[in-house]
Design a protein that fits this description.
Blueprint: H1 12-20, E1 28-33, H2 41-54, E2 59-63, H3 71-74, H4 83-87, H5 93-96, E3 98-101, E4 104-108, H6 110-115, H7 121-132, E5 140-144, H8 155-159, E6 162-167, H9 171-188, E7 192-200, H10 203-219, E8 224-232, H11 235-242, H12 247-250, H13 255-267, H14 280-291
Parallel strand pairs: 1-5, 1-6, 2-4, 2-5, 6-7, 7-8
Antiparallel strand pairs: 3-4
Helix pairs in contact: 1-7, 2-13
């Protein structure tokens, strides 16, 4: 079976630079979250980044995880710094960005993500200036969101067009995923999520897991859930993870690699069902504005 207000003022040249990032089309921003660790979220984001880049998309992964548990390690790379170093004018964005392959860039942002709500106006302007100076347009931003954000949920996930909840087949993963969806829905009125079922034996199992959680979410008026897909946990994926290489590079003909390619192909059409085609300019404005408003206890209340 096949598998409110803007917190920083834009100068004319800066706004033009941000618009250049769009490359003439709409920017797709997708945040990946999980209710618990061990479900393979970061591995999935890394492989999707590779798959999208091979489809000709220019991809930026924003990584909220600390070195050793981050996207860079999935490629066997070390992080040279953090986006916070750029905000504090200690390094340039070019110094911090990683480029593991053509079409794919990684932005380490573990420290910056935790301090977005406390940036001064000058630091916000520095961030906007840095992003406006990037030489290439991005088509897709994938966010690998941390579970330990001080606000209880990543601001990236709240301003993204899509939020994908990654879960596996065990009951604890499903329970924690539903709890996360419920919290975000109640605290921020986010009513739509996609579900990626990871580490499953068959598509039938994955569909059953999705239909159960989707039914509960709908019946209780929590959210509408769509099925993103399923990734089998085959031997190739296990070995590639041990070797710190994406399975798409290590074993491109494996079942898991095929599943990642199928998901990447489907992702390109997700936005067609949503009217929001905003670009980097709108994304950054919303991100900075929203991050100032999230309080640590809001989502946990």
């Amino acid at each position: 079976m096949g598998w409110g207000g803007v917190v920083a003022d834009f100068r004319v040249d800066q706004a033009a630079g941000l618009r250049r990032l769009l490359g003439g089309g709409g920017l797709q921003v997708v945040t990946f979250v999980a209710g618990c660790e061990g479900v393979g979220r970061s591995v999935s984001v890394a492989n999707l980044g590779v798959a999208l880049a091979r489809l000709g998309r220019e991809v930026l992964i924003i990584d909220e995880h600390v070195p050793g548990d981050d996207i860079a390690s999935a490629f066997g790379l070390l992080t040279p710094g953090d986006l916070l170093n750029v905000v504090q004018r200690e390094r340039t964005l070019a110094d911090v960005l990683l480029r593991p392959m053509h079409g794919l860039s990684i932005m380490p942002a573990a420290k910056a993500a935790r301090k977005l709500g406390r940036l001064s106006l000058g630091q916000q302007q520095t961030l906007l200036d840095a992003m406006s100076g990037l030489p290439r347009p991005f088509d897709v931003i994938l966010v690998d969101a941390s579970m330990t954000h001080p606000g209880g949920f990543s601001p990236f996930g709240l301003v993204s067009q899509e939020t994908v909840v990654v879960l596996s087949g065990n009951s604890a993963s499903i329970t924690e995923a539903y709890a996360l969806i419920k919290k975000v829905s109640h605290a921020f009125s986010r009513r739509h999520f996609r579900i990626l079922v990871n580490k499953v034996r068959t598509q039938v199992d994955a569909r059953s897991i999705f239909e159960n959680i989707a039914q509960v979410a709908t019946q209780r008026g929590v959210a509408t859930l769509d099925y993103a897909g399923a990734i089998p946990f085959d031997e190739a994926l296990r070995v590639s993870s041990q070797l710190c290489r994406p399975v798409l590079m290590q074993a491109p003909d494996s079942a898991s690699a095929i599943a990642f390619r199928d998901l990447a192909a489907d992702m390109q059409y997700w936005q067609q069902s949503h009217g929001d085609r905003g670009g980097v300019e709108q994304f950054l404005q919303q991100l900075l504005h929203l991050s100032q408003r999230i309080t640590p206890n809001l989502i946990r209340a």
